[in-house]
Design brief:
With 249 residues, the protein is α/β, with parallel strands linked by helices. It has one domain: HAD superfamily/HAD-like (Rossmann fold), CATH 3.40.50. 26% of the residues lie in helices and 14% in strands. The strands form two sheets. A five-stranded parallel β-sheet has the order 6-5-1-7-8. It has a three-stranded antiparallel β-sheet with strand order 2-4-3, with helices on one face. The longest helix has 16 residues. The protein starts with 7 loop residues before the first strand and ends in an 11-residue tail after the last helix. It binds magnesium ion (MG).
Length: 249
């Protein structure tokens, strides 16, 4: 597999990998037992100081997917200086390879996305064609144009959950089972089971065209192919869940 065909994971920040709370506002009052200490602060000793909590399993996820060959990008609606401060904190406190391995750091200032992350329109910045990109986000609106590329996660509000560890296992097992060739979100525990999701296919691959029949008209950046399920992940076994998330949200 060439480097340009290596799969790219596009992670959201707030609500997905981390949460941050303004120190100036005195934080949010929550039960101490499910409200762990912060992992790091950003903009320290300024009026913008925020305490940051990292979601359980973030280190294992980033290390695990990087080790098997996924590339990592971050796309947030937050301002660029905030995004850079969070990435710096994650690099220092969570996964020291993050900054050097980061393919792209996209913010609203770069993309003017208006709340919808246009994967197809930003393939150049992500250095990947659309069929090699998966997005991990807690807000379904952001990937509403690309649901077959999306790995939904419940919103993280500071409490423990196993979402990122489960995501690491799902992605690494998928990569190992297919050599990284297939990207198929259909077996992920939080996908919308009523959506017509499809494994991502190379739209220029003539083998896929003939295999899938005439109704699968394809074009650049278009997703095609019927969902055949995920042989490496049984949706029932993973517990097709809701997006309920933490009771603290
Ligand atoms: Mg978010």
């Amino acid at each position: 597999m060439s480097q340009e065909d290596a799969p790219t994971l596009v992670f959201d920040l707030d609500g997905t990998l981390i949460e941050s709370i303004s120190k100036q506002n005195g934080g949010i009052h929550r039960p101490a037992a499910s409200f762990p200490p912060s992992d790091f602060h950003i903009f320290e000793n300024t009026s913008r100081e925020r305490e940051v909590r990292v979601r359980h399993g973030c280190r294992e996820l980033l290390k695990g997917v990087s080790a098997v060959g996924f590339r990592i990008a971050i796309w947030t609606a937050a301002p660029r200086d905030y995004a850079e401060a969070i990435v710096d904190g994650l690099d220092r406190h969570v996964f020291s390879g993050l900054k050097t391995n980061l393919v792209a750091l996209l913010t609203e200032e770069d993309t003017h996305s208006g709340g919808i992350k246009d994967l197809a329109g930003n393939c150049n910045q992500l250095e990947s064609p659309l069929w090699r990109v998966l997005i991990v986000d807690d807000n379904p609106r952001t990937y509403s144009n690309n649901e077959s590329n999306a790995l939904p996660v419940p919103r993280f509000c500071g409490a423990w959950d196993d979402t990122l560890l489960a995501l690491r296992d799902f992605l690494t097992e998928m990569h190992e089972a297919t050599g990284g060739v297939v990207l198929d979100v259909t077996g992920w525990r939080y996908v919308n089971k009523y959506a017509k999701l499809q494994p991502l296919r190379n739209p220029k691959d003539p083998g896929h065209r003939s295999e899938e029949g005439a109704e699968s008209a394809v074009g650049d950046g278009e997703l095609t192919g019927p969902s055949r399920g995920a042989p490496w992940g049984d949706p029932a076994a993973q517990g097709l869940g809701t997006m309920g998330g933490s009771e603290l949200c």
